[in-house]
UniProtKB/TrEMBL annotation, chain A:
Family of the protein in this entry: Belongs to the binding-protein-dependent transport system permease family.
Membrane topology: Multi-pass membrane protein
Main location: membrane
One GO location term (cellular component): plasma membrane
Name the UniProt record assigns to this protein: Carbohydrate ABC transporter permease
Record organism: Microbacterium betulae
Localization annotation: Cell membrane
Bias-annotated ranges (Low complexity): 1-16
Gene3D superfamilies: MetI-like (1.10.3720.10)
One Pfam family, short name: BPD_transp_1
Automatic annotation (TrEMBL), chain B:
Residues of the ABC transmembrane type-1 domain: 85-301
Name listed for the protein in its UniProt record: Sugar ABC transporter permease
InterPro entries attached to this UniProt entry: ABC_transporter_permease, MetI-like, MetI-like_sf
GO cellular component: plasma membrane
PROSITE patterns per the UniProt record, alphabetical: ABC_TM1
UniProt lineage: Bacteria, Bacillati, Actinomycetota, Actinomycetes, Micrococcales
Membrane topology: Multi-pass membrane protein
Length: 296, 309
């Protein structure tokens, strides 16, 4: 598609330095107002959670949920760390994510590479079988998964948890990376081969670097998903010292009721690492989304 | 976010014989084949197998073959199953309409240049980074009958009569959970739609403007076709996530009151782990598997056909 031929039309529609007509500005302002109101509505639950997280029990029982506390109970955050056993549970979650996410991406990339670039017989069928795996709800297999882990003696172990996490994480990643790897021009690979590069070298030095935006996007998604995973963790982990962050939320509901202040503080704390990863990788995330989401 | 759409560019011609290629591919496939087969495919198939047995799940008990008895019981005696099936289907349909529609509108709005655009995008996306189980805890508090925001706000504006036990009343519980799921789910679809909007060809849009096409005409003729692949991705991910809904229900109602918020994924889990009926749990899981495949295989076929082109 030639850009030069199109440039004049583009220029004609938005003359430099000219403001849009007043009529369209009203539409623009109305739209902005509607979006701003919706955004406020979306922000409201977060605001309420924050207000709850800085209130003591007395304020919670007397003040409306949206009002600031009479005394700011920042100590709720300390209690949250304590009751939720934050350093242990966050450490467990981090350990699982830091093993699972890079390892899973590597395994997925290798398989996507074989499917997309080596093209052996049965590759398409295998891709189809893997694709279906990215769509089945994990809850279908939780019962048997429990039995399997029990037989392997890996129930209630973080390492044991990583294995099904990997299995349920890679199908989608393979699917996405397959799309990327198919898009790499053959000439690139052929010239490398003429220079004597091995298949592994092509994978490592050509295909993987080119897929960086996709890998970064998948890293963010997978980190968030792993950090937040609940169904498998609650099925396979038993003892409290092995709990991950999502399981720790239940520590705040005891027989005598829920400690809402510390619990809401804990919810905010639990999202901090995910937000950090999201902000660090945001640039790549958007690139990856742009490159990957819509090549159909 | 990336997609499930298959892409082809260029056709490769290689001189290596096929079996040679497989041996070359195998090292790259082995970890996936082992993990995927052992921890995904096998549990799925085993759930189907278990649905033909009666088993408490305890190692000391042996599973007893009962044929299709579990299914007969499921379809004729298990009222909770029908509630769960209906709720799961309702959840899928509503998810396809409400959050997806809101996400599309937000993406169209936030695709324009405007003050505070990035901040607004962030506000809509942030709920998506919270774990569903924590979102459930948040919203249970918001719905608290006496101290919660919803009833307090209603009383504040003089609608105190409307105050409800939102999660404690079978009439409102499922809808109340669904509101939380809209809040959490919109941001992700919005990001996908925003990414899709980047592929709307600017030159086509400008040409349409020059030709005097109205905003609506431009939307219909240029934006909608360009968004088609993205929409398919959003739809399939929405369906999958709707069938998987679990954490929100567990955290907010546990399926109650009176099983009114029960869904297939949770009912299968409850039968297996709480009621110690792994056979019945397997039967529910099998139904969930069949529903899932019935919804996603047409998509797969479409996707594969797209790739052929």
């Amino acid at each position: 598609m030639s850009t030069t031929a199109i440039a004049p039309a583009h220029a004609a529609s938005r003359p430099a330095g000219t403001r849009r007509s007043p009529r369209r500005d009203y539409v623009g302002i109305g739209l902005w107002a509607a979006l701003a109101v919706t955004a406020l509505l979306w922000f409201l639950p977060l605001f309420l959670m924050f207000m709850t997280s800085v209130k003591g029990p007395a304020d919670l029982n007397t003040l409306p949920m949206w009002s600031p506390p009479s005394t700011w109970e920042w100590s709720n955050y300390a209690s949250a760390v304590d009751i939720g056993d934050f350093w242990v549970t966050a450490g467990n979650s981090l350990l699982v994510a830091l093993v699972k996410v890079p390892l899973g991406l590597l395994i997925a990339a290798a398989t996507a590479f074989a499917l997309a670039r080596i093209r052996f017989r049965g590759a398409r069928a295998l891709l189809g079988i893997i694709a279906i795996g990215s769509m089945v709800p994990v809850q279908i297999g939780l019962g048997p998964l429990f039995s399997t882990m029990l037989e392997l003696g890996m129930l209630d172990s973080l390492f044991g948890l990583v294995l099904p996490y990997l299995a349920f994480g890679i199908p989608y990643q393979i699917f996405v990376l397959y799309g990327f790897f198919r898009g790499i021009p053959d000439e690139l690979e052929e010239s490398a081969r003429l220079d004597g590069a091995s298949t592994f070298r092509i994978f490592r030095q050509i295909v993987l670097p080119l897929a960086k935006p996709a890998l970064a996007a998948l890293f963010v998604l997978d980190f968030v998903a792993t950090w937040n995973e609940y169904a498998m963790a609650t099925t396979l982990l038993r003892t409290q010292s092995n709990w991950t962050i999502p399981l720790a939320v239940q520590s705040f509901s005891a027989q005598h009721g829920t400690d809402y202040g510390p619990m809401n503080a804990f919810i905010f704390l639990s999202a901090v690492p995910v937000l950090i990863v999201y902000l660090l990788f945001q640039r790549y995330f958007v690139q990856g989304a742009l490159a990957g989401a819509v090549k159909g | 976010m990336a997609t499930v759409t298959l892409v082809t560019q260029g056709r490769t011609r290689r001189r290596t014989p096929p079996n040679h290629r497989l041996s070359r591919a195998l090292p790259y496939l082995v970890p996936t084949l082992v993990l995927y087969g052992w921890f995904l495919v096998y549990p799925m198939l085993d759930a189907v197998r278990l649905s033909f047995f009666e088993w408490s799940g305890f190692r000391t008990d042996d599973p007893r073959w009962v044929g299709i008895d579990n299914y007969v019981r499921l379809f004729t005696q298990d009222a909770v199953f029908w509630t769960a099936l209906r709720n799961s289907v309702v959840w899928v349909v509503l998810s396809l309409v409400i959050p997806t529609g809101i996400a599309l509108l937000l993406a169209l709005g936030l695709n324009r240049r405007m003050v505070g655009r990035n901040l607004m995008r962030a506000v809509f996306y942030i709920p998506a980074v919270f774990a569903s189980i924590t979102v459930a805890a948040m919203w249970r508090w918001i719905y608290n009958p006496t101290l919660g925001f919803v009833n307090q706000a209603l009383a504040g504006v003089g609608l105190g009569d409307w105050a409800q036990s939102w999660l404690g009343d079978p009439r409102f519980a499922l809808a109340s959970i669904f509101v939380a799921s809209i809040w959490q789910g919109v941001g992700f679809s919005m990001v996908l739609f925003l990414a899709g909007l980047q592929t709307v060809p600017a030159e086509l849009m400008d040409a349409a403007k020059v030709d005097g096409a109205s905003t609506w005409q431009r939307f219909r003729a240029v934006t909608v076709p360009a968004l088609r692949p993205t929409t398919v991705v959003v739809v399939i991910l929405t369906i999958i996530n709707a069938l998987k809904v679990f954490d929100l229900v567990v955290g907010m109602t546990g399926g109650g009151p009176a099983q009114s918020t029960q869904v297939l994924a949770l009912w299968s889990y409850t039968q297996s782990f709480a009621n110690h009926q792994f056979g019945m749990g397997g039967a529910v899981a099998t139904v969930l598997l069949i529903v899932t495949l019935a919804l996603v295989i047409p998509y797969m076929a479409w996707s594969m056909r797209e790739e052929e082109r």
